Amino acid sequence: MEEVPKIVVTPPGPNARRLLRRDEKVISPSYVRFYPLVVDRAEGSLIYDVDGNIYIDLNAGICVMNVGHGHPKVIEAAKKQMEKLVHYSNTDFYYEPSISLAEKLVKIAPGNSSKKVYYGNSGAEAIEASIKLARWYKRRQYIIAFIGAFHGRTYGAMSLTASKPVQRKYFGPLVPGVIHVPYPYVYRCPFGSKDDPEECSQRTLAFIEDWVLKRYVPPEEVAAIVFEPIQGEGGYVVPPDSFIPGLKKIADEHDILLIDDEVQAGMGRTGKWWAIEHFGVEPDIMASAKALGAGFPLGAMIAKEKIMVWEGGSHASTFGGNPVSCAAGLAAIEVIEKEGLLERAKNLGEKVMKRLNELKERSKIVGDVRGKGLMIGVELVKDKRTREPGIEEANEVMIRSWKAGVAIITAGRNVLRIAPPLNIPEEYLDRAIDIVESKIKEVESLFST
Ligand SMILES: Cc1ncc(COP(=O)(O)O)c(C=O)c1O
């Protein structure tokens, strides 16, 4: 095992600084940019920066590299495809890789109904397709979405997104017909039911039913409810067990479609192919992207066959279902199957959660630990009693961990997210968590003096 992480020069080093100066001149300042990590190459669960530092990757390129960086099977499949055919617009003609991947996707999709696949290039495009199909099929205008949600930044997806004001500021008017309702964020339940998941779940469901659908939004005009089975950018928020089944009940009662956004939580991250499988509900439409293309741009909407009946020309995209992306995506699915990565994500995730829960007992700033599989959030607070969000604390832990060789980022405002490649060697994961833990302790003493 390599002696990692390895910091040979405090980042950002001289080569990184040179590139940062060039970047600043030509790249849009709208990007997020957590910290000035300038990546040269990556392999497995390690990231090498341009100054020779080696980091352990706890974010997997924002939940994209679920099978690790440069997996030989993925690279081989992509190379082979690149030599044969790089592009020939799947929306206008036909080729085999998009068919093979779709055949696989409909097999691993949740539930027993027959399904079909629409391809785009990103998560936002998979969401655009989902809301367009829902409106087209139902001939209804309204879409219900959740506060705290992140579905992307194109106009349709942005209109559903509601996790940070900056994502919407000055961009209005947004797409009309979107109604936002609270999400059952148990640690900060909008209905005040302190730490009782069931009560938070029932109150949130009752709000949708009694205050939205009975007071001002005619249910017969609602096309779909769009949700993340675990909120990602909103802060790695896991809903109570009864919540998604409760949503399904409301949806069934009013003949509304359920759109499941698996862009971040899907493709094995939570220990199942799709996070919604933890809740036993089959969605009508599902959006996938990120890890779907194993690092190549790819998004997919997977919908019940009886719903995917829109006419030719109603929705398409030149690059959607690129053959190289599809070949890489199919190879990644086979890797997850052959290497038993679903089971691995579940087992490693349980170990990490146990460790972090023990830390929570001892720490003054770890307020909540939650997650499924290797999608784990650690919420930092200034004070465990008031639960005032530890925004500076989370930021400080993130930066200190990075400088010590762990690429970890935050979600929401004050949540550390732990989302490494699913095949990260256990030893690396342990070392990375050791470092993050030590930085939490450092920051705790820094802010309490
Ligand atoms: C749940 C979810 N949906 C949609 C998106 C948008 O995906 P993309 O950035 O590929 O457009 C993201 C991106 O973070 C996401 O986390």
From TrEMBL:
<dbReference type="Pfam" id="PF00202">
    <property type="entry name" value="Aminotran_3"/>
</dbReference>
<keyword id="KW-0032">Aminotransferase</keyword>
<dbReference type="GO" id="GO:0004587">
    <property type="term" value="F:ornithine aminotransferase activity"/>
</dbReference>
<keyword id="KW-0808">Transferase</keyword>
<dbReference type="GO" id="GO:0030170">
    <property type="term" value="F:pyridoxal phosphate binding"/>
</dbReference>
<comment type="similarity">
    <text>Belongs to the class-III pyridoxal-phosphate-dependent aminotransferase family.</text>
</comment>
<dbReference type="InterPro" id="IPR005814">
    <property type="entry name" value="Aminotrans_3"/>
</dbReference>
<dbReference type="GO" id="GO:0042802">
    <property type="term" value="F:identical protein binding"/>
</dbReference>
<dbReference type="InterPro" id="IPR015421">
    <property type="entry name" value="PyrdxlP-dep_Trfase_major"/>
</dbReference>
<dbReference type="InterPro" id="IPR015424">
    <property type="entry name" value="PyrdxlP-dep_Trfase"/>
</dbReference>
<dbReference type="InterPro" id="IPR049704">
    <property type="entry name" value="Aminotrans_3_PPA_site"/>
</dbReference>
<protein>
    <recommendedName>
        <fullName>Ornithine aminotransferase</fullName>
        <ecNumber>2.6.1.13</ecNumber>
    </recommendedName>
</protein>
<dbReference type="InterPro" id="IPR050103">
    <property type="entry name" value="Class-III_PLP-dep_AT"/>
</dbReference>
<keyword id="KW-0663">Pyridoxal phosphate</keyword>
<dbReference type="InterPro" id="IPR015422">
    <property type="entry name" value="PyrdxlP-dep_Trfase_small"/>
</dbReference>
